[in-house]
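User: Okay, second chain of the day. Same drill as before: sequence in, structure tokens out.
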Amino acid sequence: MKQVLIDRYGPPEEVARCAEVPDVGVPAAGEVVFDVLLFPINPADISFCRGTYRLKPALPATPGAECVGRVTAVGAGVSHVKPGDLVINLQRENWAQQRRVKADDVIAVTAGMDLQQAAMLRINPPTALLLLTDIVELKPGDWVIQNVANSAVGRLVIRLARQRGLKTVSVVRRESLFTDLRRLGADACVVDGPDLAEQVRAQTKGAPVRLGLDAVSGRATARLSSAVSDGGVICNYGSMSGEDPVMPRGALTSGGQALVGFILGRGLARRSLDEIRAIYADLGRQVAEGTLSAPVDRVYPIEEIKAALAHAQQEERSGKILVALSAPVRQSCLR
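Assistant: Same drill. Structure tokens below.
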């Protein structure tokens, strides 16, 4: 079967290759085998290939935080999924034609769900949800500010905040994005810059902003902090700048602000398996109904993984880059 491998860390489009590897075999008791249908390329996958991600396994290694697949076989004792079911996988190493995993690591998704959207269900929707529920106790009418508002997570935050009666300030790098974000439900849109706090006060009419969501880090964290009210919380969940977050000491001391971090795995680890399945069931229902979605720029075959990775690193994309897999058959891969 085909599987993406990296033999060294470096530029993703250089170090990733499509290899032919042995099939995964039949499932043991408590295991599931599924064919991978589609997977997205996420920023974490890019960092993984570069060797800058928090996980750095022995090489050769396979990236892949997300995928959607179809179950082909289940082992003894598995009852929550069956052959033919669509599933997402809570574990990594998903850039392969086929996976064999513990049954508790797969979650069934609605049969009629769009496959492209299903492939992106595992990380971004629950991340957006937990950023709004686990960091600050928010109530209807509260303001939340976020940078990278045009990202997949940012767009989902706008939708989910609107459902909860929360108001959002969307910080982006160019004004041309305003119309699309307002269509999604953004209450205010501003261009990032040194005058961010003044822009935000004008848009919110001085209302307190209780939560700031930061996916850029570096000095962008400080700019976000300047727009958050005294006693507010800045939550960092990404680093598009590749830097550590920077916060003014005065904001932490005199302003009483707090800087916290978020990672999805920690948020889910606090919950039971039943609670995790319930979260994905609700988010999956909203995705299937079209309430939640993320734009897709292009879909590549796995043989073109290098081109897909190069495209995924371009800033002016119109959506996610996805990779499609055919049924696992033995044939040569492009190298």
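Residues 329-335 have pLDDT under 50 and may be disordered.

User: Thanks, on to the next one.
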